[in-house]
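Following up on my earlier thread - several people asked me to post the actual chain instead of describing it. Fair enough. Here it is, all 295 residues.
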Amino acid sequence: MAFFRQSPSDFPFEKTLSSKILPWVIGALIYLATLAILGCQGVYYTMESWNTALSRHVTIEIPTTQKEKEKAIAQLPALFANLDKISGVQRTERIPEDQVRMLVAEWIKDTALLSSLDLPILVDVLITPEQSVSAREIQQAAETIFKDVVFHDHAEWYSPALHCAALFQFFSVVLALLTSIVVVGTIVFSTHTHLIVHQHIVNVLQLIGATDNYIARQLEKYMMRIGGQAVFLALCLSAITMSVFQPNYEGGEEDNLYAWIIVASVPFFMITVVLCVTRLTVLWSLRKKELNLSL
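Reply from S.P.:
Thanks for posting it. Predicted structure:
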């Protein structure tokens, strides 16, 4: 971080320990805020993807044995005809048996045991967008053809997942806000401390006619250098994190682009906040006359 050089200043900021610690503290806080926002964004797009894939689908499971499978398959056209009569059902189709076997293979690794199992027949029912269909109506239509049919409504487990996702997003936003508040508090404390430590320089500058804005600019230059180092650190950590976890991210190219925009924009937004807080703290402290000494 040595390439962030400080402009000539009337204050000996380089001699303070905070000039070496603050960049790491603020950088870590900015990185934490970036992770919180990325987590919120990632959960949002994941749940949107699940909603698109599952909210319009219900599954009908028809238990059967190898001996009865041919008879059950022969009755599927009658099942499809019953389901197509229901208002809101857009399409019905049988899920291929090899896909059903692949689903079961996730839990049963023994190939011999898997091949001996009597796998059920699965029927996927697609609901027309923006229409609601009674789960009981679909189940009754299926039971007229198959007595032991099992109906799977994905909303039964999907709704609790949505609540958990919303809760996670809420805590992510709270974490980002708390981190921002800590950054602001750190800057206020650091700026006010520098003014107190160098109050003799402040009084000399005021004595020779320096304005409050001039003194504020001196602190702004110092915080700009600190903030630049913090932003560089946060960007590096965020880029490394994205590079590690992005291959496992299920979002599309647009979602990945938004994630990189967050990585780039959050640190620079925070540095803008740092500069504004620094100026307001200096002007408030000087106008309160808390630092003036009688010379």
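Residues 1-6, 291-295 have pLDDT under 50 and may be disordered. That should answer part of your original question.
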